[in-house]
Amino acid sequence: MNVSLSRQGHRLLQIGVALLLFSSFEGFAIPYLAAPRLGLSAHTLSGLEAVLLLALGLLWERLNLSAAASRVAFWLLIYSALAILAAYVMASVWGAGNETMPLAAGAFHGSAFQETAIKGIGYSSAPTGLIAFALILWGLRLADPSSTES
User: Which residues contact residue 41 at a Cβ distance below 8 angstroms, ignoring those fewer than 6 apart?
Assistant: First the structure.
C-alpha cells in the first residue's frame, strides 16, 4: 500500500467532514448575508463538495498513480473545491457576483474589484478541477497484470 496515497485519502476525508461542518454552520448565516440566494448556493455547494471529497477519499488508495501525479491530483482537487466555494462565499457576503454567476446572484452586482476577485477565483477552479479529475480517472485504470503487486 502506498503510504502517500493513504495519507492523502485520509486528508480528503478530513476536509470532507470539515466542509460538512462548514455547510451546517453557514446554513444559519444565510438570512443574514448580503445575497441570501448566493448563501444558499454556497451552502449547497459545500455539501456537494463534502460528499465528493468523502467519496474520493475512500477510493484514493486504489488509484494507480505515481507519487508526483497523486500529489498534483490531490492539491489541484483541494484548490478547485475551495476556490469555487470561496468565490460563492465572497459573493454572498459582498452582495456581488452577477458577472460570474448571474443565475444565483440575480441583480447583486459589486464593485469592479469584487466582481474581478470573484471571477478570478471562481474561474481558476475549472482548469484545476478538470486536471484533477482527469488524473483521478487515469489513476482508476487497472494495474498492469504483469506487475508483482496485488
Answer: 88, 92, 101, 104
pLDDT tens digit string along 79-106? 999 999 999 999 999 999 999 999 988 8
Q: Does some domain include residue 149? A: no
Whether the full predicted model's pTM is greater than 0.70, yes or no, is yes
Per the structure, the count of domains in the chain is 1
Place of cell 506487475: 147
Give me the amino acid identity at 83. Answer: A
Residue 150 domain-assigned (yes or no) = no
Residue 59 in domain? yes
DSSP for 68-128, please give it: HHHHHHHHHHHHHHHHHHHHHHHHHHHT--TTT-HHHHTT----HHHHHHHHHHHHHHHHH
Domain assignment of residue 145, yes or no: no
Q: How far apart are CA 101 and CA 29, in angstroms?
A: 20
pLDDT tens-digit map of 23-66? 999 999 999 999 999 999 999 999 999 999 999 999 999 999 99
